[in-house]
Design goal:
2 copies of one chain form a homodimer. Chain A is an alpha+beta fold and 345 residues long. In chain A, 33% of the residues lie in helices and 23% in strands. Chain A is built from 9 helices and 14 strands.
Chain lengths: 345, 345
């Protein structure tokens, strides 16, 4: 038996692989969140979360960013979607012998720019140089901190209903919650594909890589967010399915309300890719209590997320993720078995 | 300009590389330890430390252990040498497409065995599969926790002198402190070389990979430890030089007191390798106040470190690391410019 690409591709195969090989050996819970819940980060103290991600994107520099932007924003985002403040990061680089220093410096500059914008610090690191043909692999682990925005969000949510968690959890959705996204989908996956220059045609699309903490602070101050997840590998299809399953609700999304750039949509159409399964890097799918959802939407737009939209709602009427088209037909959106494009983050 | 192997090899070249590319961009201090002090782990709270390491050892399985044992013990050791209790780890795997599942399971079993012995937990993770010829790369980041053994050690040390730090620091040595090591050197580096099967002759040597926390707890209860470091890449030569420089002391070590197996010594001799620069994985170099050093030595032996030895002392008479031979001649042990063997951890 051998490891297959699908085993690391963010879909159903990966979940099976992780359950069979990792969870059976290491399952644990030291605070509220347990390893087998596959949350984006895990609490180890009433005040702190831990997350980790190794970035293997190919090519390491692409329109809109680099593996450096991913390594900082991606890890910060895994913290922010639990309501944590991205505070302290580790940086471990594995670099191919002969990798261009100029390219490395560009990557490190991207890291430096984003870590400052987020207001976090890299506090420890490690560097290895190898002969394997990897270009560069960057691991960032991150510590998220309890903060007043999270407290405020939970306080407001609890004015409306019970919410038994200390952090914002994937399993926190209740039927009736509205589903929001902060902008257009499928841009990161498309940008990386274009950057690979294996295609006959190009579109002018940039990765949407961005630290979502910068607008989630304000959204949490409005309050009532019951679940959040960043739709990276596997796109919003994987993300919505995971949230629905963990929360034991169904989710209906309306196709025409899902923000997507026209050219990105055409690009995916021509290549036969479903934009719902394409990776994003600066997006959050949020479930919000219906009474505060409009105000959360307003706060997202005010914080620069102009294409933010309410795209659907959670329901107890079914247990799947269902897409309703503009003419009213419905289809089930299955969890992707794997990411359509490997090495996208 | 291109990245060179030496830039990631744990010696002087790596320090220059890190200073020029990483520290200039990211230098920070959020609690006591700052990034440019290059400690094995960094505190971010009065109670917690963070460390990270990406393991790239080739081959991934070797006599005495595997990349799995390294990933757990190595990261736990970077915490333990600051006096921290290894508590919570993240595990991020990058696996080559086609890697044998049996080998992966052996590696994961090693991880599982050691994490249990240490009493720590893996609380979060990430898995990627790539086509590059890496076999497997494992990153573990770890959180260390303040504990009563550390408190006791500092308390006893402070009965003898001022010690201004909250953790056990590389810069904590005072002249007169004795230098201890818990057993034979150069075993990990030798075992990895033998496992590569590129040599005409073999010795029966195993990696010394081991979680030093298991005996440091007792040693800290005896107390008076002023600095500790695990001599991995660059061996005890790199380790002693770093400690001496940071503490602004000289260190004299007596050649005949340095524990080393006869066959390991001959192996290094034949290959023209200096065992002082060869990697170790279950060793700690400790500086201990002279009044408690004998009792610390006893506690190490009692905890199973039978070859533990006092190998020298710190002095204000010079600022180098000096090796005294059995016939009384002295030579300076320079900091290695790079590790003699690449991909050893």
């Amino acid at each position: 038996m051998r490891v297959r690409k699908e085993d690391g591709a963010g879909g159903k195969y990966m979940m099976d692989f992780l359950r069979n090989h990792i969870i059976t050996r290491f399952n644990s819970r030291v605070a509220e969140i347990s390893l087998d819940e596959f949350e984006d980060s895990t609490d180890f103290d009433v005040d702190y979360l831990l997350t980790t991600d190794s970035y293997v994107v190919n090519p390491p520099i692409f329109p809109g960013g680099s593996i450096g932007s991913l390594a900082i924003c991606g890890t910060a985002n895994d913290i922010a979607v639990k309501g944590g403040e991205p505070a302290f990061l580790s940086l471990s680089l594995v670099i191919q012998d002969g990798f261009e220093i100029e390219m490395l410096d560009k990557i490190l500059n991207d890291m430096s720019q984003w870590i400052k914008k987020i207001g976090a610090n890299i506090i420890t690191g490690d560097t290895k140089v190898v002969e394997s043909n990897i270009d560069i692999i960057a691991n960032t682990s991150g510590i998220g901190r309890r903060n007043r925005h999270l407290e405020r969000n939970l306080e407001i949510l609890r004015e409306h209903r019970e919410y038994p968690f200390k952090w914002i959890r994937d399993s926190g959705i209740s039927p009736g919650d509205l589903i929001l996204i902060n902008g257009g989908i499928a841009e990161h996956g498309s940008a990386v594909m274009v950057a690979r220059e294996e295609l006959d045609f190009h579109i002018d699309v940039k990765s949407d890589v961005y630290p979502v903490w910068l607008f989630l602070r304000d959204a949490m101050d409005v309050g009532g967010i019951s679940a959040m997840k960043d739709p990276t590998r596997g796109g919003i299809a994987a993300c919505l399915n995971e949230m629905a399953e963990k929360s034991r609700v169904g989710i209906l999304i309306e196709e025409e309300r899902i923000p997507i750039r026209e050219d990105v949509k055409s690009f995916c159409d021509v290549l036969g890719l479903d934009p719902l399964t394409m990776a994003n890097e600066g997006k959050v799918v949020m479930a919000v209590h219906p009474e505060t959802a409009d105000d959360v939407l307003k706060s997202l737009k005010k914080a620069g997320q102009r294409d933010a939209e309410i795209i659907g709602y959670a329901t107890s009427e079914f247990t799947e993720v269902v897409l309703e088209t503009s003419i009213g037909t419905r289809r089930i959106v299955p969890p992707p078995v794997a990411d359509p494009i490997p090495r996208v983050c």
